[in-house]
Structures are given as C-alpha cells and as structure tokens.
Design brief:
With 96 residues, the chain is mainly β. It contains 1 helix and 7 strands. The chain starts with a strand and ends in a 14-residue tail after the last strand.
Length: 96
C-alpha cells in the first residue's frame, strides 16, 4: 500500500512527521554524527544529500510504500513510511 506519512527518527526517537501528499522542499537534518537532506515530491520521499562515507541512504532512491525505510546508519537517521488504518501491520512482498 502507498504510504501517507514519513516519520523521521534520529537515534531511535521520532523527531518529526510529514505528509507524503504535500511536496516538501529539501529539508536538512543535522545530527551529532552528520547531516542528511531529504525531500518529498509526488507522494514519495528520498534522501538527496548526506555527508556519510557510503551514501547508501542517498543511493536508496525514492520510497513510497508502507513499511519501506531509508536508513543512514552512520548518522542513526531513519525515514520510515507509514500509512493510516489497517495497512500498517500488513505483510507485503518484502516482509513475507
């Protein structure tokens, strides 16, 4: 299922949430380990820039489905896609 919100977590704590239906200009999130820049467009989210050594978060690309995450381990930074209602706990092809 397509997600409705993206939850921003730093060091395991939720710090913000954004509606995936509303385009968002690039947002820079600073942590004590470094920074990540994410953006929302057309119901999707991605990390467009970071100063981590491997840039796996940037190479993950756009995400839009419930249960998908973008993770930057060096910065303890996670973007988690969630939905409303019953779809949050459903199994999908990725978790099956």
């Amino acid at each position: 299922a397509k997600g409705t919100r993206v939850v921003v977590e730093i060091e395991g704590k939720v710090v913000d949430q954004f509606d995936l239906a509303t385009d968002l200009e690039p947002q820079r999130i600073e942590t004590k380990h470094g920074y990540n820049v994410f953006e929302i467009a057309d119901g999707q989210v991605r990390v467009s820039e970071a100063d981590c050594p491997d840039l796996l978060c940037v190479h993950t690309g756009w995400r839009q489905h419930v249960g998908q995450v973008i993770v930057c381990l060096p910065h303890y930074f996670v973007l988690r896609i969630v939905g409303d209602g019953d779809d949050q706990g459903s199994l999908d092809g990725f978790t099956y």
